[in-house]
Specification:
It is built from 5 helices and 29 strands. Helix content is 7%, strand content 40%. The chain has 3 domains: 142 residues, Jelly Rolls, CATH 2.60.120.200; 37 residues, no CATH class; 133 residues, Galactose-binding domain-like (Jelly Rolls, Sandwich), CATH 2.60.120. The radius of gyration is 25 Å and the shape is flat. Strands 3, 8, 9, 10, 12 and 13 form a 6-stranded antiparallel sheet that branches. Strand 14 and strand 15 form a beta hairpin. By secondary structure, it is mostly beta strands. It starts with a strand and ends with a strand.
Length: 410
């Protein structure tokens, strides 16, 4: 297959990638803005956990020029500039970053201003150089050990100075959907025939060779949003209630209940989905797209497993598991340990740790292999978290949607 297009727009082809342009933003100088959403999972050290990198401004744009970069961690946000040699930190927001956070870096007359979740948090001095955005920079060796630890949306360049009101508008639009699935996926079936699974309606054109083309019009795809009225069950001994109901999917760390916010372990999301006879057309494919998940998920449909998922995209093919009428959907989501450890720091101290944070004596219940005593839920031989530390995003964030696709043989 040489090329596939949808509604006249090329989706993918077999052409060689174009070489990146080093001085792509030569005309963007001193007055510009960059916005994105970021979810740091660790603390950031100097020059590390970069959302986008700098490059040597003088090498790319000439004498007197610099390129900006942005780094972030749970401990803050850092703005860098590089004219020659190593990057230097020119602006720091020293504050906790918890979960998905909207960041906007605004340069006005060469001076950086930083916004977090729509609010201005700090501003810097005018640079001695002409500053360009550090987007799509050529790869350098230091990028291999300064990658961002977490997740973030694609940075968006605004070729103007955003006002405070415009930054607030961007923040209020919310976290953008993932949109990681291609409208069509090619595959080879058991009969060694080429098939296409369509997820969106439109006119598709397949260029098999320079002389052989095939055009297909798809009109039968649909999406059923499943973002509301989920029941969530928690295991015994977690301190969380046995069950809660979520009118709309949201990170567990935003829940009112203390033990839900600080839950660590595996919880079970449950929902019923009803499918009509008209949904089961020829070639129909059913995909359950979970959206964002923190951190891993197991999908169960009508009592049968649809698989484990540990990275984006969190999408399960449930074609063989769904049926006409009511369908039972369960998503077992397992998150990370820090949230409960942080929650326990609000409770009475149970063990003594050294200045290096190692436990000084193992508790008797542990040594004697007995049930844990005390009010704390977790236990660790290393004390490295405080009650003021940022929580990690937790649970099924969504948006969840059932995609009704269509498979055809090409």
């Amino acid at each position: 297959m040489q090329q596939v297009s949808k509604d006249g727009i090329i989706l993918f082809d077999n052409q060689i990638f174009n070489k990146p342009v080093a001085a792509k933003f030569a005309d963007v100088q001193n007055n510009f803005s960059i916005s994105l959403w970021a979810k740091p999972d660790t603390f950031a050290h100097g020059g590390r956990s970069m959302l986008f990198h700098t490059s040597e401004g003088e090498s790319v744009y000439g004498s007197g020029h610099a390129v900006c970069g942005l780094g972030a961690g749970q401990n803050g946000v850092f703005v860098y500039e590089n004219s020659r040699g190593r990057s230097r930190n020119v602006l720091t927001f020293d504050g906790p970053i918890q979960g998905w956070t909207h960041l906007a870096l605004v340069y006005q007359q060469g001076a950086p201003v930083l916004f977090a979740n729509g609010k201005k948090v700090t501003e810097g001095k005018t640079s001695a150089n002409i500053v360009h955005p550090g987007l799509e920079t050529l790869v350098s060796n230091d990028q291999f050990n300064s990658y961002f630890e977490g997740n973030f949306s694609k940075p968006e360049l605004h070729r103007q100075v955003l006002t405070a009101e415009e930054v607030i508008d961007l923040y209020q639009k919310g976290l953008p959907p993932l949109n990681l699935l291609s409208p069509v996926k090619l595959n080879i079936n058991k009969g060694r025939k080429l098939t296409a699974c369509f997820l969106q309606n439109g006119i598709y054109e397949f260029l098999k060779t320079s002389r052989e083309k095939q055009k297909i019009q798809i009109q039968n795809c649909a999406e059923k949003i499943q973002d509301s009225m989920w029941k969530v069950r928690f295991p015994k001994g977690s301190a969380a209630p046995e069950q809660i109901e979520l009118p709309k999917l949201v990170s567990l760390i935003k829940h009112d209940n203390f033990d839900v916010r600080h839950f660590s372990g595996t919880c079970n999301y449950q929902k019923k989905i009803t499918l009509a006879a008209a949904d089961f057309t020829k070639g129909r494919k059913f995909l359950l797209d979970l959206g964002r998940v923190e951190v891993i998920a197991k999908v169960i449909v009508n009592g049968k497993s649809a698989g484990f998922f540990w990275k984006e995209p969190f999408v399960a093919d449930v074609t063989k598991l769904v049926r006409q009428g009511e369908n039972d959907i369960q998503v077992e989501v397992t998150n990370l340990w820090p949230n409960r450890l942080i929650g326990d720091e609000h409770l009475p101290v149970e063990n003594e740790y050294s200045k290096d944070r190692f436990i000084l004596k193992l508790p008797e219940w542990y040594v004697n292999n007995q049930p844990k005593t005390g009010k704390r839920i977790s236990f660790a031989v290393w004390h490295n978290l405080e009650k003021t530390d940022p929580l990690l995003e937790s649970g099924l964030l969504g948006p969840v949607k059932l995609i009704l696709g269509e498979e055809r043989t090409l």
